Amino acid sequence: MNQKDVWDELRTLSKGKTIDALIPPFIYVILNGFFSIQIGFAGAILTATLIGIYRFKNKTTLKYAFLGLLGVIFAASLALLSKNASNFYLPKLLTSIGLSITALVSLIVKKPMAAWLSHLSRGWEFNWYFRNDIQPAYSEVTFIWFLLFTLRGSLQYVLLIREDLTGLFIINTLLGTPLTVAVLMISYVYGIWRLKKLKGPSIDEFRAGTPKPWVGQTKGF
């Protein structure tokens, strides 16, 4: 594996306009701090809507803008109904808990989350992922994800209990897209290295029924 392969994966991960989902929460925190939950709610929704209009006019992806708008409406509604601004981040805490549990269960049943996500995104055959000389790589990467989800969820819980809105914004920003992309890239590099150590067949060799010795997976995880 070379640096070009890593950069190709990074470009694939960064194609979406993920910042579209980051700006509305920032506006919410600022307006809530200076004014009220209601104004923060309105400002966040207006910002998400304007981003969607901008993306539409420029004929770029609406995916993240749309998800950002739905997320803001749901989260801000929770905060508004409970009259607690910190509850804006309750859905993110629940997401972290859900992902952590899913990762753990997938490890226990020996069907690692990383393998399922790879299958869904790449369409490779299930049987390849669960070979004894392939599966450990995906299990170990899933364990890394489990640690990330658990760390993020723990910090979110503590800050939510303290009703620390600024801290919640900072943590969700730092442990959101930036750290997720970093972990995914580390997972990719580690995964390819681990597959090489396991000496199993590449997906192409598996499909072709190529006998040993195998070259192994050199690109894609």
- Indicate the mean pLDDT: 79
Number of domains: 2
Task: Provide the low-confidence segments as ranges.
Answer: none
Strand content: under 5%
Mind telling me the C-alpha Rg? 20 Å
Total E-strand runs: 0
The best one-word shape is: elongated
Number of H/I helices: 11
User: What string gives the helices and strands in order?
Assistant: HHHHHHHHHHH
Sheet with the most strands, sense and barrel status? none
End-to-end distance: 11 Å
Helix content: over 70%
Structural class: mainly alpha
Question: Can you give me a brief rundown of this structure?
Answer:
The protein has helices at 3-13, 23-34, 37-57, 63-82, 90-108, 113-122, 126-129, 135-161, 165-174, 177-198, 203-208.
Write the layout of secondary structure elements.
Layout: H1 3-13, H2 23-34, H3 37-57, H4 63-82, H5 90-108, H6 113-122, H7 126-129, H8 135-161, H9 165-174, H10 177-198, H11 203-208
Helix pairs in contact: 1-10, 2-3, 3-4, 5-8, 8-9, 8-10
Features:
UCP010219, 221 residues, transmembrane, membrane, transmembrane helix, DUF3159 domain-containing protein
Report on this model:
The protein has 221 residues and is mostly helical. The protein has 2 domains: 16-83; 85-221, no CATH class. It contains 11 helices and no strands. It has helices at 3-13, 23-34, 37-57, 63-82, 90-108, 113-122, 126-129, 135-161, 165-174, 177-198, 203-208. Helix 5 (90-108) packs antiparallel against helix 8 (135-161) and helix 8 runs antiparallel to helix 10. It is elongated and about 70 Å long. The termini are close together. The model has no long low-confidence stretch (mean pLDDT 79).
